[in-house]
Amino acid sequence: MKLDKILKSKVLYYVALVLMVINVLGYVSLGSTECVVIFGITTYLANMFTKNRSLDILCGLFVANVVFGCGRVKEGFEGHEGVEKKLRDDEKSESSRR
Question: FRET pair for 43, CA 20 to 30 Å: which of 53, 60, 73, 82?
Answer without folding.
Answer: 73
